[in-house]
Amino acid sequence: MLHHSSGLLRLLLCALVWIVRAAQSEDKLTVIGGVARSDTVCWTCPSHITNAACNRWAPNLPCPLNDTVCRTVHVFNTKTMNTLSVEKECIKPSLCSSNNVGCETSDDGNTEICISCCKGSLCNEEVATDDATAQRQSLNIHSTLQTSHSEGCLPTSSLLALVTIRFLTF
């Protein structure tokens, strides 16, 4: 009985950690047109030739529920610094690790692509034009990325299933 009780206690502690993290989350559930959305709103646009044109085009809609990070891809001419294209979108936080942001120059040295990410509504208004800016704009993502489970706890879906099973067996 003691072993059974300690397992239940561990399960309840993990559930408590999950509940606290969910309560502290900035993202809330919104349903628009039958689609679950987060409360994060990003500037979003397909390829536009200027940042201003992209921002003017951007619809003011919340991001899809699991896509709570804003990503900006800026391609520009390295000689003239003229923008060639800007794309902005909502994406999953896991797609914006420190390995996925920064700037890279083309082989011919004529164009550069800068990718930056940020977390927070309308945080991606500006575009990066160098690696330091792209990394700086992305800092709030790298510091807040967390795993979906706590140390020694199960992922949320497994945890909820086990809590339900445990309470049904008592």
The span between the termini is 13 Å
Unreliable parts: 13-29, 146-170
Principal-axes geometry comes out as globular
Count the DSSP helices: 5
The biggest beta sheet reads: 5 strands, antiparallel
Strand order of the largest sheet: 3-6-5-8-7
Structural class: alpha+beta
Mean pLDDT: 74
How much helix is in the residues?
25-40%
Order of secondary-structure elements:
HEEEHEEEEEHHH
Strand content bin: 25-35%
Rg, rounded, reads: 21 Å
By oligomeric state, this entry counts as: single chain
Work out the number of β strands.
8
What are the key terms here?
170 residues; five-stranded antiparallel sheet; three-stranded antiparallel sheet; globular; disordered C terminus
Care to describe what's here?
By secondary structure, the chain is an alpha+beta fold. Helices cover 34% and strands 28% of the residues. It has five helices and eight strands; from the N terminus they run αβββαβββββααα. It has a five-stranded antiparallel β-sheet. Strand 1 (30-32) and strand 2 form a beta hairpin. The chain is globular. The protein starts with a helix and ends with a helix.
Quick synopsis:
Helix 1 packs across helix 5. The chain has helices at 2-24, 51-57, 131-137, 139-144, 156-169; strands at residues 30-32, 35-41, 45-48, 62-64, 69-77, 83-91, 102-105, 111-118.
Give the helix/strand layout:
Elements: H1 2-24, E1 30-32, E2 35-41, E3 45-48, H2 51-57, E4 62-64, E5 69-77, E6 83-91, E7 102-105, E8 111-118, H3 131-137, H4 139-144, H5 156-169
Antiparallel strand pairs: 1-2, 2-4, 3-6, 5-6, 5-8, 7-8
Helix pairs in contact: 1-5
